[in-house]
Amino acid sequence: MADQPIPVYQISTLGLLRQALEAETPQGLNPTSPHGIPAADRSRAWQHLCDLIDQWSALSAEQRSRVVTVLAKLGFWQTIIDLVPEGNGSNLDELRGAYFRCNAQAQLAGAAGETQQAAHAFLKARSVMEAIATTDSLSASVRYGAAAHLVVLHAKGGQALPEMRKWRDLADSIAAGAGGPMEPLHVSVYWRGISFIPYFEGDHGQVREMLALAESLGREALAQADADQRLPATENLHPVMETRGRAAKAAGDLEEAEGFYRGMVALDSLDAKAHVRLGDFLVGEKRIAEARDSYRTSASLGAPYSAYAFAQEARSSIRLGEVEQALGPLVASATIDQRALTPLLLLRDACEGAALSPLRQWALSELAVRMGRS
Hints:
By secondary structure, this protein is an all-alpha fold. Helix content is 71%, strand content 0%. α9 packs parallel to α12, α11 runs antiparallel to α12 (230-250) and α16 runs antiparallel to α17 (324-336). It is globular, with a radius of gyration of 22 Å.
């Protein structure tokens, strides 16, 4: 809503979303920008987004920030790069735009297999977040959230404990000087973020306590959320439950870990990633038939996890001795992900006998083409 703070979103759209959608539905509408949808096929909301892009130069910094947020959620990375100029800017909305631009560059480079460029863009994005956390003129809640997020970014960047502690301490200092309590959603983000510190220190008990607080506050935020806050409150709980599952597994509490992964599914049964995470856990527990069910459900939900889910469904069928049930999912996985080699290798080995010779030949031909491109 206008004049309201932009919500704290916790789930980033995968860089391969647009490519995955195009591979899965090649005959459908697969735009590389919002304007790629023909005007006659646009919903009212989609047309409004296109109009805002067309009016970009006349938009306020706050309006631009909201448009960029929507574009990031939809995976229109190149559109963000085209709209947002280089540089950090001088206010929060411009800083957010700069962060999204760097993230868009990282996503596109990662999707293209350009690892060095992706790493460089990630570091640039982190430096923008550092500017947000350390700009005293910004609100305490914004700086607090940025500092907590920096703990997570440093955890992803290589377990740099001194840096993680530095940003945790800054978040604590900001909260102490805020003059009032932080919102439950922001504090939930904080506890999940700083839980990475004891996780890398091996203190599983403290991790469990921190994540329990993150979940409790996250559920409080969801219970209090109005229509505009419900999505970010729900999105916050998703990584909380995922992190709790990983932490419980690392601590050896497998029953609790399974509960958290199933909690992800219960939170949003239409989230393909939740079913993948549950399937991966079940594979680790050698519960292959159950894992196959999870992967099959994930694959049915479509991009961007379908290629992986189809491949894992096929692997499960092979492990269960039901090779014939693996053939269709392997073809689907290899067709959706045009760079994948593993499903083709599995298909080559699974096709025995004259009846499957054409399918085996297709797999060998595709392997030759793809290996020639690598």
